Amino acid sequence: MRTVSWQIAQAGSFTTESWASLGWDIQNLFRSHARGIASSLRRRGLNNETAADLTQDTFVRVLTTPPPAASGNFNPKAYLYTISRNLGTNYQKREALITTVAIDDASVPEIADQKPSPEDIVHSRQCLLQTYNALAELPERTRQAFEMHRLGERTIAEIGEELGISTSRAWALIRDAYKHILSCVDAF
Fold it and tell me: Which of 17, 20, 88, 102 has the most CB atoms at less than 10 Å from its CB?
């Protein structure tokens, strides 16, 4: 009821005295008919959440657009159900205009924006700086072996040959560089 009261205040409501002149007690009408209106909307094929929303909208509509004053003997229940039926029909017409496509979980990454968020950009830059500093701390030969392997895309045998060391020693240098970088860089 709080949502309805706020919406009424925003819309410029019909005064309480005016409702009393029609002989309508809106709170009593809500308590008496809201459940039935929601049930009738669900029977028309709407889900629980939509039916609840349209029930609230029905009472907002009644409060912001009262029945014509010329009709002296007016049936509030019929008026409420007519408004809810019309709102439900309008909702279903709008939904029919919107084309929905079922998407499986595997397709979501293709649709999602691949652009990194600002937080991801900052985090990546921080990791890059930490990696650069960790490489600067390595002994010269270890750093060279690592850079040749990762950046130069050379095989371990080529690295060993170029540095004049065995293949197993070249691998040990690269492994030590990996361990050092991983220990220095956060969130790897």
Answer: 88
